[in-house]
Amino acid sequence: MLPNPTLDQLQVFLTVAETGSFSAASRALNRAQSVISYTIANLEAQLEVALFERSGARQPKLTEAGKAMLEDARRILGDLQVMRARVKSLREGLEAEVSVAISVMVPSRAVVDVLHEFRETFPTVSLNLNVGELGMVMDLVLSGKATIGIGGAVLKQDDSIITERIGHSFMLPVAAPNHPLAQISRPLTLGDVREEVQLVVTDASGRTKGRDFNVLSYKTWRVSDIATKHQLIKAGLGWGGLPASIMHDDLRSGALVHLDLDAYEQGEYAIYSMRQLANPPGPAASWMIDAFRTRLSHCPNQADFHAEMAELRDTAPPLAAE
Q1: 164: which DSSP letter?
Q2: In this predicted model, what pLDDT tens digit does every residue of 88-142 receive, in sequence order?
Q3: The dihedral of CA 280, 283, 285, 288: what is its sign?
Q4: HTH lysR-type domain location, by residue (predicted)?
Q5: pLDDT grade, residue 322 (50/70/90)?
Q6: Distance between CA 251 and CA 47 in Å, rounded?
Q7: Residue 277 forms beta bridges with which residues?
Q8: Which CATH code is given to the segment(s) 171-266?
Q9: Contact present, 22 and 35 (Cβ < 8 Å)
């Protein structure tokens, strides 16, 4: 029969190894030293290996097998502690899992900061994360696949959804520095962009079917996601709007340039939290909404963003003459 050590035996073994002696382990566990010795002897008999070298030493010393078993014992007992913490949390009403849908309009730095703190604050809560475009966030909340949504557009009012504005974002038209539109040194007109390929994200949710936002070119390439759009614009294959949080570093490095195009609506977009009226968020999901509200309140507005970009242009070194 395969050995089947008990959790108590593993705890005694771990305590002896960590305290350095059978007597110290007996004091730590408030048990007689004879009980400690008997438990270790039984464990060794079950495993059919010696865990401690006892002869010729005042203190027990781990054998090579004992050192290997020590790591397994720590892992098993650690998993037990996780299980106990999870059960305690569930009894107190904490969710076992939070499912969240996040729009690409939400600044990625805010997402990383919130999720990092979420992991530290709720170590027993699993996370199911979806990041997508346009109507996807609302669809996932409506279908119950997401407990909460953090999104940039409420495309259709629905009485079953509770929404709350918690921040803002905005999009700007950009192109690669070698793109023909980037070579024009004056404000762009509709005539300038009409014949240039514009990259547009298609809404997989279907909620914006028949509605185009800031599509100004006669020639469009439609892509499934914002990441693909970003890469194609950087490669010079077209121009288009990107969320400020996504292109911020590219504008700083010169990998992308902002297009001065009045016809492109560049107002701020509200970012909302969304949840079902019939499915109130638990403690962890409620904490996440509040955390996003706090992070997004510190995000720069459009005027600050333009001021930063203008400062970068003013401080950029002049091009060397050929």
Answers
A1: E
A2: 656 667 888 999 999 888 888 889 999 999 999 998 899 999 987 767 888 889 8
A3: positive
A4: 5-63
A5: very low
A6: 63
A7: none
A8: 3.40.190.290
A9: no
Query: Cα dist. 314→124, 153, 310 in Å?
Result: 49, 34, 6
d(CA 106, CA 127): 18
- The CA dihedral of 265, 152, 244, 236, to the nearest 10 degrees, is -70
Phi (first) and psi of residue 308, to 5 degrees: -65, -45
Report the DSSP beta bridge partners of residue 243: 171
Answer yes or no: are the C-beta atoms of 74 and 256 closer than 8 Å.
no
Where in the chain are all domains bearing CATH 3.40.190.290? 171-266
> 68, 51 in Cβ contact below 8 A?
no
Q: What distance in Å separates the CA atoms of residue 308 and residue 320, rounded to the nearest whole number?
A: 24
Find the length of the chain: 322
* CB contact at 8 A, 163 and 150: no
CATH 3.40.50.300 fits 97-168+271-298, yes or no: no
Q: Per CATH, the architecture of 7-92 is what? A: Orthogonal Bundle (1.10)
Residue 22 has pLDDT above 60, yes or no: yes
Q: Is the CB of residue 231 less than 8 Å from the CB of residue 209?
A: no
Closest CA to 247 of 297, 189, 168, 176: 176
Looking at the chain, the whole-number percentage of residues with pLDDT higher than 90 is 30
Range(s) for CATH 1.10.10.10 in the chain? 7-92
CA distances from 300 to 110, 243, 267, 303 (A): 12, 13, 13, 8
Amino acid at 29: L
Helix axes 283-296, 108-121, angle to 10 degrees: 140
**CB burial of residue 250 (10 Å; 0-12, 13-18, 19+):** middle
- Which residues of the chain does CATH 3.40.190.10 include? 97-168+271-298
Q: Which two tokens stand for residue 262?
A: 């009045």
DSSP assignment of 199-217, as one string? EEE--TTSTTTT--SS---
Q: Return the structure tokens found at 42.
A: 């039984």
